[in-house]
Amino acid sequence: MHTHGIVWALVAVGAAVSLAVIVRTKWLQSHTLPKCVLLSVVLHAVVAVVCSCLGGLSPASWGQSDSGPMTMVVVTAEDPADGLRPADGDASPAAEPVADVINVAGLEAATRSATAEEPVAPPAEHVPLLEVASEDDATEENRPVEPEQTEVAAVDAASASAVVDHSPALSAPAGTAAATAVPPVYADRMAGRRAAAAAARGGSLETERAVQAALVWLAAAQSSDGRWSAARHGGGVERSLQGHHRHGAGAKSDHGVTGLALLAFLGAGNTHQQGPASEVVARGVRFLVDRQRADGSLAGDAEFFAALYCHGMAAIALAECCAMTGDAALRPPLEKAVRYTLSMQSAATGGWRYAAGDKGDTSQLGWQVMLLASARQAGLTGLESAEARARTFLQSVSSGRTGGLAAYRPGEQPSVAMTAEALVCRLLLGMPADHPCVGEAVELLARSPPETRSPNAYAWYYATLASFHAGGPQWEVWNSQLQAALLPLQRRESSGLDGSWDPDPVWGGHGGRVYSTAMAAMTLEVYYRHLPMHRQNLPIAVAPGQPMR
């Protein structure tokens, strides 16, 4: 058989050589059409001979070697509209038992009174996403708390653990409390304190219902591997913003929207070790940690324009989870993530943008500065140089009579979103809330209140943070306007979109429904996500820990 193949190969080579000789001579100059037909027949014969030598005269694809009936598998692409619902086999096992039963008597009671005589236990048949506990200590920032009754049936931990194998380093048995005390900055988000914090700082029954519904939708939207898929829920839709095209950035931003979804759960007191949504958080954290690159990046497969955003969002979630639990297993990946952020900062300008050494922009800077602040709460030190350079960049984009306004990049016109984000960064970096530029920034925000007809999740999120942390009478006005604009936009229906927010027309197309819902939930968690910075003794206290190496 081997000799037979060699003979056929020699014949094919000879025919090819002959054909080459014919083409290079004058043989084709007369009777062109008949000769071209002849050459075509010869050429096809040569191809057939070569194929028979390589594959044999009876390829298996003809079905002669099959022992049974053949099976055809047809794979169809998922329609974007259907992508709003998890595909079969990809939905989180946590999604199935989630119900929409809500009881917010705890917040109502906290609004009426600052004390409670007898804790009222939630009905046993429902597990709240915002878990309930009570505390007895009473201080200015830790006043007596009416036990929360905000309640949503959530994750069935037993059914979830049967599907997902949880590493001991990233989970704890049900009911196990965190090993270390939660930093004061995050203390109000924990069970037993949320209701009082929300009631004292402008929250309402409606805001808590909205947060609950958002967390239920996010739990149902999680994929079985722990991620939240951007593309599955409408991410990656190209829009031209201010003349810039991002080439569909966002479609592969799973790590970024996963970070945002985790931050929404963490903001309500859930961690990978405790809380009714601990299984949801554990899967998400494991997804990020398991896919961290060797250089520390948590960007995953995100496109160029979205990569550092995704890294920052995911790393902040990792830092908050580490700070809230003290889980030593999260420390190494967090340190790697922070080192990556430091390596991407421009030594010349102090900013961050898309690639290492880029001059920077305010939008990118905000996420990285928030990461540094969160890393401090987790015990990381040695960040002072990076923070000093960040202050230098903020100065380069500042304008206004006191320097309180901020632009996207140096030399450009200031905007509401960038002014708000810059103000949050300045407060995180130690600026006192009574500084004149804080007042100037807040004045600009007051002239551009949120309106339902023009939603902008990004600008509203940062403007709400800035207004809340600056404090003063302006916060009450902004908070009232925010609730009037944001709450009516939440989906309230029996379909799979209940509790979510539609992607807004600004950046919502890039991040999709997970982005818009997580951002809205965090915005409405503002009352207890962080201790107001105007009441903190800045700079932010650093928990004990080893310096960055």
- Alpha-carbon distance between the two ends: 66 Å
Residue ranges: pLDDT <50 for 5 or more in a row?
57-103, 113-128, 130-179, 537-549
Which CATH C-level class of the domain at 96-393 and 506-516 is it? Mainly Alpha
**Number of separate strands:** 2
Which structural class matches the secondary elements? mainly alpha
Share of residues in helices: 40-55%
**Proper CATH architecture of the domain at 96-393 and 506-516:** Alpha/alpha barrel
Task: Note down, in words, how this protein is organized.
The protein is mostly helical. The chain has a domain of 309 residues: Glycosyltransferase. It is built from 18 helices and two strands. A two-stranded antiparallel ribbon has the order 1-2. It is elongated and about 95 Å long.
Could you give a short description of this structure?
The chain has 549 residues and is mostly helical. It is elongated.
Q: Which secondary structure elements does this structure contain, and how are they paired or packed?
A:
Blueprint: H1 2-24, H2 32-55, H3 105-112, H4 157-163, H5 194-201, H6 205-221, H7 254-267, H8 278-290, H9 304-325, H10 331-344, H11 362-377, H12 384-396, E1 398-399, E2 405-406, H13 416-428, H14 436-446, H15 457-470, H16 473-486, H17 508-524, H18 526-529
Antiparallel strand pairs: 1-2
